[in-house]
Design goal:
This protein is α/β, with parallel strands linked by helices and 278 residues long. Strands 3-2-1-4-5-9-7 form a seven-stranded mixed beta sheet, with helices on both faces. Strands 6-8 form a two-stranded antiparallel sheet. α3 crosses α4 and α9 packs antiparallel against α10. The longest helix is centred in the last third of the chain and has 20 residues.
Length: 278
């Protein structure tokens, strides 16, 4: 991974490498799939809802073949990579900027006997360390919001994707009609100037020769998920005292509430996008 990080990427890398963040996401956020879930009811476990997102995204791709190559951008602890490799026998590259998360990923991958199918790479999705037209599928879940140059990320996706290949992703987004300034508490928390939007991703992908083939709007799941994580944080707070700093937990609870508020007020959206490289 190039050491010439953008400011946003360096900020995200330092955050996810911190002890507090690693312990929080591993203990609270499901342990394997640290992204937004598809919930069937408000009190469903975070792991089950998050794994449902992975399975449903995979279903939208049809029957994957063992010969196909997939790259997961911002793979976190690698839950999606292990699901795809174990279910379809395909080769998966788990590209992720946090070396701490990647070590957990490698350990869990070995424990499940999937190390021959999964390559965990310390890497940056603004500078994907693979050749042109290398992958059949580019996959990403709730990771691109951390980039300060999402247009560059989309250009990199198009570069490494084979003609006819599929780009499937989710990302917490502002709505196209979001009023100026209302998301500032969220942006201040994640140290970014803005979020992507459906319109932004459609235009950026079109410029790079990526044709939209589907968007499932599951915006109601965004505040549901963050509210579920907030309740779990409050429930487990007494036992986390010796592992995670009080200051981190306080900031996290405040940040989660901002996401809940933004989603319930209709300023945020979330869903599953699919594009094909033409």
């Amino acid at each position: 991974m190039s050491k010439d990080y953008s400011t946003a990427i360096k900020t995200a890398r330092d955050y996810y490498n911190s002890d507090d963040a690693d312990r929080f996401y591993f203990r609270i956020w499901g342990g394997e799939d640290i992204h937004i879930g598809l919930y069937e009811h408000e009190d469903e476990s975070i792991f089950d809802a998050s794994r449902r997102t992975v399975a449903h995204m995979a279903d939208t791709l049809g029957e994957l073949a063992p010969r196909q190559r997939i790259i997961d951008l911002g793979a976190g602890y690698g839950g999606s990579a292990r699901y795809l490799a174990a279910t379809f026998g395909c080769s998966v590259t788990a590209l992720n900027l946090s070396e701490v998360e990647n070590e957990r990923n490698r350990a869990m991958t070995r424990s499940q006997g999937l190390e021959d199918l999964i390559d965990v790479v310390d890497g940056n999705y603004e500078d994907i360390p693979f050749a042109d037209e290398h992958f059949d599928v580019v996959w990403s879940q709730d990771a691109m919001l951390h980039s300060g140059d999402r247009e560059k990320v989309i250009a990199e996706v198009a570069r490494v994707l084979k003609p006819g290949g599929i780009f499937v992703f989710t990302d917490p987004m502002r709505t196209d009609e979001c009023p100026e300034g209302v998301l500032q508490p969220i942006l201040d928390r994640i140290l970014l100037d803005d979020l992507g939007s459906p319109g932004f991703y459609r235009e950026a992908c079109q410029r790079e020769g990526l044709q939209e083939i589907g968007f499932e709007d599951h915006s109601e799941q965004l505040p549901r998920h963050y509210a579920r994580v907030l309740r779990e944080t409050e429930k487990m707070e007494p036992e986390l005292g010796g592992e995670i700093s009080e200051a981190y937990i306080t900031r996290m609870k405040k940040g989660l509430q901002h996401w809940v508020d933004g989603g319930r007020r209709g300023h945020l959206c979330w869903g599953i996008f699919r594009f094909r490289r033409v």
